[in-house]
Write a structure and sequence with these properties.
72% of the residues lie in helices and 1% in strands. It has helices at 4-18, 33-43, 50-61, 66-87, 104-108, 110-134, 139-153, 158-169, 176-201, 206-233, 236-239, 245-248, 254-277, 286-296, and strands at residues 97-98, 101-102. It has a two-stranded antiparallel sheet with strand order 1-2. Helix 10 packs antiparallel against helix 13. The longest helix is centred in the last third of the chain and has 28 residues, at 206-233. It binds geranylgeranyl diphosphate. Geranylgeranyl diphosphate binds next to helix 4, helix 8, helix 9 and helix 10.
C-alpha cells in the first residue's frame, strides 16, 4: 500500500512544477513576480496534501491511470489553498497564522492575497484543461472529473458553506442543522470532490461512485468535528494556526453545539461510517481505512 507520505511527496513535486515561476522582472505572458511569489508562499507552505493524496489513492484503488490523476489532484490542492487564503482575510476569519507561518495577507498585503487566491483558483482549471488536451481519448472522463471539482468547490459546494458560515458568524442563523450544512459544504465538498473526481477518471459505475462519495462525505464530517475538537485541545505549534480562536469569536462549531465530548463522538461515528462506506473495495481500500482511523480519535 502506498502511504500518505509518499502520495504527499509526489504532489509536492508536481505542485512546484505546475505553479507559475517567479521571474526576476515583469514579462509579457508570465505571471508577475509578486503574484507568483504570493501563490508559491501559500501553496508550498507544507500542507498535509490530504485531498490530492485521496484522489491519487482512489485512482490507484480503482486501477486507473496515475499520470492522468496528477493534474486534478494538484488542482484540488490549489483550490483548497485559495480557500484558506481567502478564509484568513480580515473580511472573513481574520487570521494571522496558517500552516505555521504568517498568513498570505500578512506577508503580502490584503489586495495581493486576494489575487493570490484568485490566481490559484484560476490556475487550477488551467492546469486541468491543459492535461485534458494531452489525452483527447479520455476527454469525457477528464471533463467529468473537472465537473466534480468545480461543483464541489463552487456555489452549491464549498463557497455555499462559507457563505452560511459568515451568516452564522453574524448571528443571522444558528442551530444543529446549520452546523451540519456548513461542515458538509465548507469542509466536506472538497473531500467528496477528491473521491468523485477519481471515480469519474476511472469510469466508475453508480455503486462505486456511491461508495466513493459516501466515504468523502463522512470523512469530511469526521475531519471538521475533529478539527473543532482540536481547536480547544491543541497548541498553535501543533496546529500551525491559532487554537481557541473559534470559541473566542463565538463561532458555530461542533464543540459549541455538542460540547467537546459530543464533537469527539461525532468524529468517531463519522470515521466508522466512512470506513463502512468504502468496505466494498476490500483490501484495496487499506489506505482509506487507515486514513479515517487516524483522524477518528482526537
Ligand atoms: C473562502 C470560499 C472560501 C472557503 C473557505 C477551507 C475554508 C472554506 C475555510 C478554512 C477554515 C476551516 C476551518 C476549514 C475547514 C477545513 C479545514 C480544517 C481546513 C484545513 O485543512 P487541512 O487540515 O489543512 O487539510 P492543510 O494546511 O494541511 O492543507
Amino acid at each position: 500500500m502506498t502511504d500518505l507520505k509518499t502520495y504527499a511527496a509526489r504532489v509536492e513535486a508536481a505542485l512546484d512544477r505546475l505553479l507559475p515561476e517567479t521571474h526576476a522582472a515583469f514579462q509579457a505572458g508570465q505571471a508577475p513576480r509578486l503574484l507568483s511569489a504570493a501563490m508559491r508562499y501559500s501553496l508550498l507552505a507544507g500542507g498535509k496534501r490530504l485531498r490530492p493524496s485521496m484522489l491519487l489513492a482512489a485512482v490507484d484503488m480503482l486501477g486507473g491511470d496515475a499520470d492522468m490523476a496528477m493534474a486534478p489532484a494538484c488542482a484540488l490542492e490549489m483550490i483548497h489553498t485559495y480557500s484558506l487564503i481567502h478564509d484568513d482575510l480580515p473580511g472573513m476569519d481574520d487570521d494571522d497564522l496558517r500552516r505555521g507561518r504568517p498568513t498570505c495577507h500578512v506577508a503580502f498585503g490584503e489586495g495581493q492575497a486576494i489575487l493570490a487566491g484568485d490566481g490559484l483558483l484560476t490556475h487550477a482549471f488551467e492546469v486541468m484543461l491543459r492535461q485534458a488536451l494531452v489525452r483527447p481519448a479520455a476527454l469525457n472522463r477528464q471533463v467529468a472529473a473537472m465537473l466534480e471539482i468545480a461543483r464541489g468547490a463552487g456555489v452549491a459546494g464549498m463557497v455555499a458553506g462559507q457563505c452560511l458560515d459568515l451568516q452564522a458568524d453574524r448571528g443571522e442563523m444558528a442551530g444543529e442543522d446549520l452546523l451540519q450544512y456548513i461542515h458538509r459544504h465548507k469542509t466536506g465538498c472538497l473531500f467528496v470532490a477528491a473521491m468523485a473526481a477519481a471515480g469519474r477518471l476511472c469510469g466508475a459505475d453508480d455503486a462505486d461512485m456511491a461508495a466513493l462519495t459516501g466515504y468523502g462525505r463522512h470523512f469530511g464530517l469526521m475531519f471538521q468535528a475533529a478539527d473543532d475538537a482540536m481547536d480547544v485541545t491543541l497548541t498553535a505549534e501543533q496546529m500551525g494556526k491559532h487554537p481557541g480562536k473559534d470559541a473566542a469569536d463565538g463561532k458555530l462549531t461542533a464543540v459549541s453545539v455538542w460540547g467537546l465530548r459530543g464533537a469527539r463522538d461525532a468524529a468517531a461515528r463519522h470515521g466508522a461510517a466512512a470506513i463502512d462506506a468504502i468496505a466494498r473495495f476490500g483490501d484495496r481500500a487499506a489506505f482509506f481505512v487507515e486514513l479515517a482511523g487516524r483522524h477518528q480519535a482526537v
